Structures are given as C-alpha cells and as structure tokens.
Amino acid sequence: MTKASPAATRQLTRVGRTIEVRPWPDPVIDTLGHDPRSAYVEEFWLGILGPTTTWLLRRLVAVLEEHPEGTTVAMTELSRVLGVGRRASRNGPLDRCIERAVFFEVARLEEDGALAVRRRLPPLTRRQVVRLPSSLQLSHQRWQESQPSAADAVRRRARQLALSLVELGEDVESAERQLLRWRYHPALAHESAQWAWDRHRLAAEAAGAQAYEESSSTRVRTPKPVAPLVV
C-alpha cells in the first residue's frame, strides 16, 4: 500500500476547503465487499482503520447514496459531523483521516483533487488479519469458514444482475453484453444471462397460466337452453 503523496495532500488542502467526493467503482469488490456500515467492517476493519476513519467512510458512503455520481462536500461541515473539530484546519484530524483511508486503499485521491471512495470494503487480507487481537483472528476464521466460496458469490451476483436486466426489458444477448462491460468472465456472463432468461421465461409462463385459471374460475357461464319437454 502506498501513502498519499505530498502533492496529492496539497491538492486536498486547497483553498476553499471543499472536496469533490465520487464513487470508486470496482466490479469485484463491489460484489464481494462489505458495506462500511456492516457488522463485518465494525468488527474487523475498525481496528485497522481506526474509529474516525471508519465513521468517515460510513458518512461518505451515505452521501454517495444520495448523490450516486458524486458531489462537493464542505470540509468544515464534515469535520463537525464527525466530531473532530469545528474547523477543518490544514493537516488537521480530518486530513489525517482521509490520508489513512488512502493509505489502506479504501479511498484514493484523483489527479483533479477529488476523493474517490469505495462503497464497499474488501475482506481483510491475511496480513491485516494477523494484526488483529487473537480473539478477533479466531472470529474472522469462523466467519470465513461460514461463507460460501468466492466463486459462488461472484456467480450469484452475476445471475442477480442478469435477472434484473432481463426484467427491465433486455434480451439475453443485451444482458450478456452488459455483464461483459462490467468485466465478468465471458463464460460466466453467457451462463448468467441464459439462466436469467430461462428463469424469467418460466416465471412469465407460470404467471400467464395462473391468470388464465383465475379468469376461467370467475367467468360467468350462460346455461345452454333446454328444449321443452313434449308431453
């Protein structure tokens, strides 16, 4: 991991004390990672990042939920929200929190001075796990043993995305192309798009059959005329 360069820090502490916050997209970590507000981050990442940096990430992810494309954040306001001072001074607590987030690669400073933030945090590396107290190392091992394999998680996520695309009106080829644009493996993109199309088709057929049965059961049937009896 690389610390923020002095040049990047100077960009961050520019006059005006505002910073552009934008998402840091990563298809793999966005699939396998953990929301900064999750129990995993609170239990395992907290001791790595520290409490203030963890809360910083939580706050910025909440901001990005309201502004998915990014927005400008006032450093003074952010400092007050986090409780690290009423003013965001240069090289103050807030700047140090941001530098720590960049150091651990959960955020990065862009060339234009914007702060790109991961909306989900990756699982801890082995090197990070061994820095935890022994009790948390054991808890992390138990958590890992309880999780499905990474390959299963990626496949499940690809299928969910493909099904969403198909339900929004995309055909199977379009869904597959979109998964490829999201950097899924070609074989997985093809399998997931086909799975989603089959699932969607079967659901539509079942819904149609049910609607037919309901309409048939409620339909008023006119009795056939009966010829009068001849005595």
Short summary of the structure?
The chain has 231 residues and is of the alpha+beta class. The protein has helices spanning 6-12, 27-32, 39-49, 51-66, 75-82, 93-103, 126-129, 134-146, 150-167, 172-181, 186-218; strands at 18-23, 71-74, 107-109, 115-117.
Write the layout of secondary structure elements.
Elements: H1 6-12, E1 18-23, H2 27-32, H3 39-49, H4 51-66, E2 71-74, H5 75-82, H6 93-103, E3 107-109, E4 115-117, H7 126-129, H8 134-146, H9 150-167, H10 172-181, H11 186-218
Parallel strand pairs: 1-4
Antiparallel strand pairs: 1-2, 3-4
Please summarize the sheet with the most strands: 4 strands, mixed
Strand content: 5-15%
> What spatial form do the alpha-carbon principal axes imply?
globular
The stretches of 5 or more residues where confidence is low (pLDDT under 50) are: 1-10, 226-231
Give an overview of the whole structure:
The N and C termini lie far apart (105 Å). Helix content is 59%, strand content 7%. The relative contact order is 0.12. It folds into 2 domains: 6-146, no CATH class; 150-216, no CATH class. Residues 1-10 and 226-231 have low confidence and may be disordered. Helix 4 crosses helix 6, helix 9 (150-167) crosses helix 11 (186-218) and helix 10 packs antiparallel against helix 11. The protein is an alpha+beta fold and 231 residues long. It has 11 helices and 4 strands, in the order H-E-H-H-H-E-H-H-E-E-H-H-H-H-H. Strands 2-1-4-3 form a 4-stranded mixed sheet.
